[in-house]
Amino acid sequence: MLPHNRVDQPPTPLTSTWGWRELAITLVIIGIGGAITILGLRTLNEIANWDTSRGFISPPVYLAGMLLYLIIGGAILAVIGPRAGWRDLGLHWPQWLSIALVPPVFIFGMGMMILTNATVTFLIGDFQNPQIESLSGGQPFGSGELFTLWILVGGIVPVVEELFFRGVLHHLLRRYFNGIVTIILGAAIFAVVHFIPQLIPGLFIAGLCLGYLREQSGSIWPGVIFHMLQNTFALLAMALMLATGG
């Protein structure tokens, strides 16, 4: 028996001491911090004349991405964390049965994402993932570059995104909707916020899987593991395509 809510259970009572106001403050801090980071690194780039042609492999772009995600995570923990506590944000470690859910959900989710992306390719023609260009500048990764990039894409990004989408946002939506509606709304927001139109259907599928893991476990960590696996496989696929010219 799983330790948390059934997805058809009613919303939780409005008893928490934090809500949309704290989220708005957090987003303002993220926006200001992000703007300062980008402007500061752009200014340094103009002075130092760094090469940014290789996307996130380029040190200034990688550093900007790293700082942005650390700002997001830090703002959540600084503004919402003291009021919410670990349980509201899903930061507590779940029962091991919830961790055991990850492999089957991941296999199902990846299969559905592959089918979804294949359908998108069939409907719109040539399917180009813009993330390949933004991560590498279209050039193959070295082994050291691949590992460095994985630290960000496969490590930091999943933790921070799950903290925001399945920690903060899922909890707030769950106050007003049952589990099924919360999972669907959270998945839709997760997909759209990535701002990559051709990837929205596949990201929506991933969001459904991540929301399901959050709802069933009450924790973000099963979703973090799923997200890490997904990003790792995607990164390795990109590296293989670039190495083979595929």
UniProtKB/TrEMBL annotation:
Alphabetized UniProt keyword annotations: Hydrolase, Membrane, Metalloprotease, Protease, Transmembrane, Transmembrane helix
GO molecular function: endopeptidase activity; metallopeptidase activity
Highest taxon in the source lineage: Bacteria
Location of the CAAX prenyl protease 2/Lysostaphin resistance protein A-like domain: 146-233
Transmembrane segments: 23-41, 61-80, 101-124, 144-164, 176-200, 220-243
A biological process from GO: proteolysis
Signal peptide extent: none
Name of the protein: CPBP family intramembrane metalloprotease
Organism lineage string: Bacteria, Bacillati, Chloroflexota, Chloroflexia, Chloroflexales
